[in-house]
Amino acid sequence: MKKNIIPAIRLTLVCFVFFSGIYTLVVLGAAQFTANKGKGDVVVSNGKTYFANLGQKFTNDKYFYSRPSAVDYNAAAAGASNKGPSNPEYLKTVQTRIDTFLVHNPGIKKEAIPSDLVTSSGSGLDPDISVPAARVQVKRIAAIRGIGGGNLEQLILSNTEKPLLGLFGTEKINVLKLNIALDNLK
Length: 186
Known about the structure:
It is a single chain. By secondary structure, the chain is mostly helical. The protein folds into two domains: 1-39; 41-183, no CATH class. Helix content is 42%, strand content 8%. It contains six helices and five strands. The strands form two sheets. Strands 3-5-4 form a three-stranded antiparallel beta sheet. Strands 1-2 form a two-stranded antiparallel sheet. The chain is extended and about 75 Å long. The model has no long low-confidence stretch (mean pLDDT 87).
């Protein structure tokens, strides 16, 4: 018994020191090389502070809609619904989101709705939407705000983030930054 317990205690102590000390300091050190030194992407608008790396809830028709959240945009409860694509409850939720989108965007066909506007991400806090998800909303926003569709297209283009190194990921748009730019349009 002594033959097994002593090495187990040693291993526990080594893991404790490594994972609670050394590893933590390495991650903290690496974070110092990021834009905000690991504190997130902070955006201040109209005296309010937002984190652009967390999804925000935009449901007002004069704004671009965010990606739906399974946790109602609560960062403390981040997570997915964990329901599979054939789960009847999940399918009902997606259909409700489709129906709601079609009510607020008349003239758009169901097939034209990008999936990221009716399905939540794995974290439930995705701050980005795809370029097609932004473009499908242009008609509604242009009509409500009295802005030309061309101006909104230009706004979408100027807020589009390209894939990392042109290879990794897809083009995406941060909804918070896009809506702040939309409010700042003259």
